[in-house]
Structures are given as C-alpha cells and as structure tokens.
Amino acid sequence: MSRKKQTLGEFIIENQTSFKYTSGELSRLINSIRLAAKVVNHEVNKAGLVDIIGAAGDTNIQGEDQQKLDVYANEKFIQTLTKRNIVCGIASEEEDDFIAINSQDENNQNKYIVLIDPLDGSSNIDVNVSVGTIFSIYRRVTPIGTPVTLEDFLQKGSEQVAAGYIVYGTSTMIVYTTGDGVNGFTLNPAIGTFYLSHPDMQFPVDGKIYSVNEGNYVHFPQGVKNYIKYCQMEEGDRPYTSRYIGSLVSDFHRNMIKGGIYMYPKSSKNSEGKLRLLYECNPMAFLAEQANGKASDGFTRIMEIKPTELHQRVPFLCGSKNMVEKAEEFMQNA
Ligand code: AHM
Ligand code: MG
C-alpha cells in the first residue's frame, strides 16, 4: 500500500520544534511564501495567453493596467510578507531601497528580514521556459522595535536562518532549507497543495554537467577558460555535458538532482559577474551547502563574503563539491 504523502503544511508543523529559534514565526513566514508562490504560479502559467487576454501595458477588463510578471510577483510577495506581523524589512531585486515594515512602532516585535528575487530569469517567460523565485531569511541585528537599517540586510550569508526557491517549471516546486537539510515540495495544481516529493535533497559529490554562458567565453578570466577546456577534454569521465537554461533556479535545480556545476564568472564586460550576492547567490549557496554541495566566487566561500551594498554582484560557482573544487583549483592557479 502506498504511504500518504506529506503536505508542505504538515511538514512545516512537524518540523517547527526542531528549528533552533522555535517560536512558530519562521513557520508562519514559510507559510506566507507558500501562499504567494501559489498566486504567482497561477499568473506565470497564464503567461502564454497574453496575446489572448492582453499583454503587459494593456488595460484589462476592469480598467486596471496589466503588469509585467516580475512586477506582479514582486508586489504579491511583498504584500503577503508584509501582512503577517513577522517581517520587519524586505529587500527585493525589483526595489532600489529596502522596505521597512511598521518599524517605527515600538510594539512591533517583528524580527525577520527577507531578501527576495521575485521572478528570476524573467526574460525566459516570453518563450515558455521555466523561471523562479529566490528568497533568503535573516534575523535582524538591530534591536526589535526600532527602525530597520541597512545593517540588518548586509549580513553574511552564513547568518541566514532559512533560504529557498520556487521553480515554475513543468511542475512547480518549493525547495527550502532552515539549516537542517534541503527538502523539495511539488505543487498538485488540481488542489493547490504542495507535497513532499524530494526529501533530503543532496548534490552528487561528482557530476557531469557544466552550466555557463559560453557566449562570454572570450571575456572570462584565464582560469575559467582553462576549466571549461578541462570539462570538454576527452579523458576519464569527460567530456562533460553542457546545459544552460539561463534561469539560475532551474540550472541549479537540475544540477542538484543530476550532479553538475553552475558558473557565472566575472568577465572583462562584468567585473563583478552578474548575479547578486544577497538574494541570488547567498540563498543558493546556503541550499548548496545544506545539500552537500559547495558555492564560492572561485577564491572565497560565498557565505563568508561580507556584503557592502544591497545590490552587490559577485562571481558565482556553485554545485557538486568536487566540481566546484576543481574549478577553484583552475582559477587559483591561472
Ligand atoms: P535576472 O535577475 O535579470 O533575471 O538575471 C539573473 C539570471 C539568472 O537566472 C541566469 O542564470 C543568468 O541571469 C543568465 O544570464 P545570461 O543571460 O547573461 O547568461
Ligand atoms: Mg535575478
């Protein structure tokens, strides 16, 4: 007889007490992300119908302006996170500055900070390719009941209390960690429930997939070029397979399941790379480490980098441990 699958809601309640700051608030926070994910998923799934029901910039039947999906996702996550009296500050890829939530109110006991990329890889939407949401959660460092400051957001990735992503793919999934391994939940769209489908996810220690935008090859540092050539060389279990979707979440997700490395190095065009430390690299690095993988900028562990700006970019290598270590070796010896 098949065992009943656990829902995300049941999993959150069951695991609440194993979390070191157990107060139920983090569980409520994850729950609010679950809710926003469903709403955004519904909208993302309709993206192909824009020609029929109206493109962004059009006016809908109620006379409201239609929004671009990344703007829509941003609003939905912010609205949902703001309502619950748990979060005191939000930073988003879509907002220049952080948003302080009721932080002038002395009675406000909210202690969590959320950093979010509401719809990453959004250029893929127009062509029906999967996109994702990435989130990262911290406890504030300034006193509760005072206004949040930039200092609350510029914490090292190693201080994260939870992180995860939603992948809007052939199935929609939430994958997250609270520092006790990584679990993945798949949405059953017929009933709007996420089920635990991928318990205790782990990167294979070795892999055979490398994911990088090779269009930038000539602009990459020599160490990265050397590593790419190593991946392509006919020797042992190589050449590796090249797979690049151009949606960080999807490339990461596939590599975690199959074994692989994702790279967005710096280049002569982008001196710091492209990806943002606080809401793209740190949460993925936390997930990677919790899944027995690794993340670095080629020289330093991502989660040890002390951020100096909200929208800071860093070079990013992430994936199966042995592959990341090999790439680091090439970069450090070039
Ligand atoms: P975005 O935040 O503007 O969507 O950019 C992030 C995305 C990642 O998901 C993806 O891996 C990368 O940018 C692709 O960049 P490129 O097209 O330069 O290869
Ligand atoms: Mg992004």
Strand and helix map with partners:
Layout: H1 8-15, H2 25-45, H3 50-53, H4 69-83, E1 87-92, E2 99-100, E3 112-120, E4 131-139, H5 150-153, E5 162-168, E6 172-177, E7 183-188, E8 193-198, E9 209-211, H6 222-232, E10 241-242, H7 248-258, E11 260-264, H8 277-290, E12 293-296, E13 316-320, H9 321-333
Parallel strand pairs: 1-3, 9-10, 9-11
Antiparallel strand pairs: 1-2, 3-4, 4-5, 5-6, 6-7, 7-8, 11-13, 12-13
Helix pairs in contact: 1-2, 2-4, 6-9
The chain binds 2,5-anhydro-1,6-di-O-phosphono-D-mannitol and magnesium ion.
Features:
334 residues, alpha+beta, Fructose-1,6-Bisphosphatase, Chain A, domain 1, D-Maltodextrin-Binding Protein, domain 2, 2 domains, eight-stranded mixed sheet, five-stranded mixed sheet, 9 helices, 13 strands, globular, binds magnesium ion
